[in-house]
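Technical note accompanying the year-one report. For the benefit of new consortium partners, we illustrate the data format agreed upon in the data management plan: each record pairs a sequence with a structure-token string. No post-processing was applied to the example shown here.
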Amino acid sequence: MDAALRAENQALREQNEVLRQELAELKRLVFGSERFIGSSGEGQLSLLAEEPDIKRATPEKQTYSQKVPKSTTVTPPSRKLLPAHLPRVEVVLEPEEDTSNMKKIGEQVSEELDYEPAKLFVRRYVRPRYVSNEETFHMTALPNRPIDKGIPGSGLLAQILMDKFVDHLPVYRQVQRYERLGIKLSESTLGGWLSSTCQLLTPLYDALRQCVLSQTYLQADETPIPVLDKKKKGKTHRGYQWAYHSVKDRLVFFDYQPGRGREGPKECLKNFQGYLQTDGYEAYEWLNAQRDDITLLHCMAHARRYFEKALDSDAERAGHALSQIQKLYAVERHARQADLSDQQRYVLRQQQAVPVLEELHAWLLEQATSVLPKSLIGKAATYSLRRIKTLSLYTSDGRLEIDNNLIENTIRPIALGRKNYLFAGSHAAAQRIAVFYSLLGSCKLHNIEPYSYLKDILERLPDHPISQIDELLPHRWKPRLTKQEERLSTIAV
């Protein structure tokens, strides 16, 4: 009887501890959390601190002293010069006195930065008609436009795309802004233009998809997007944008799927062979189990987040794990700062990262039998222990990254878009969104100014040979020279 009571008492104690930790985690999510030892400044939650101190800091009374400068001379703050590439509008301010008999001895120039609102204009194509021998008429053909027989030019279409998918401005707000500029455009009109523009860009999107999937190392992630569904009146369907990122070429493409099941990556990656880095989602795990030509590796940042959540409930164990992970990120920081080649990064990891991972593995094995499986620290240890091999796999090849943060950065615009335009109007609209975010996301990875890129390719695509479509992909795109630049280049040659 005593044994049964002791067992029941122990079970209740464990349940109470789990509930206590769950309550602490809920408070952390609601009221915010402390970060582990400060910020690294590189997007990581302080993974790169050199000397971790696991104990929570207690508030201390601090005193401050201020040195009084010996000199009372005040040095005015230096102002940065305005960029030279901005056009200048010169305004000459002459003295009120008559200066006709005066000698100019110099001038003082002051600059201010100003702004003019965007403006619409109408481009008129005037085509003279000629006749020869009173029989044959001569008139040049209209140039092909992004939307056949449509009124929007490439600049306007590029701006509409920029407003919605870069600055996250819903269509109805764009309509209001254009009305302030003096023209009324309906939401359906802008929606039709977006649909037609997507059709024009689809061959380029297909080329981007093929280019990304031909690589041997990809990062994958997915993010939800609400979609209006005719079958669910008054409700939205939860669709998903699946992202695939080529680290080598710095390209990303999005593949819309109605659900989060394994069918999405199964179909998309049916011809892919190589390394696939993910966050541990089971759909990728299943794919890896079914395919011998895919090698799965996992994300160290996700493993770290589990231990960060456990800091409040078990600072000693969680802090030890985080300090070990910090050492791994310190190796990565050194490799980036030294601009090491893939081979050099491989050698450095073998020398400095592999011993840390081996020590972490041994420590995780020790913790497996000494912590409650349902506690936060137990979940963190189980998550990493189950994946220690795939978490360590990045050290076997200098091309591989330690985490999935690069692709997580590419899907953030979709999260921002959800907060502004709320949902996609249909499954077809969600796929169009995938096309636009793919091209714009790849532009961002290459630091390409998106408006210039969109305007240029929308002008080129109607006449561009489909066999040379790859030339317009962001990593191969070269802006066309103006007529003046062409003349200067010809003179230089």
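Partners are asked to follow this layout when depositing records. Confidence is low (pLDDT under 50) at residues 37-66.
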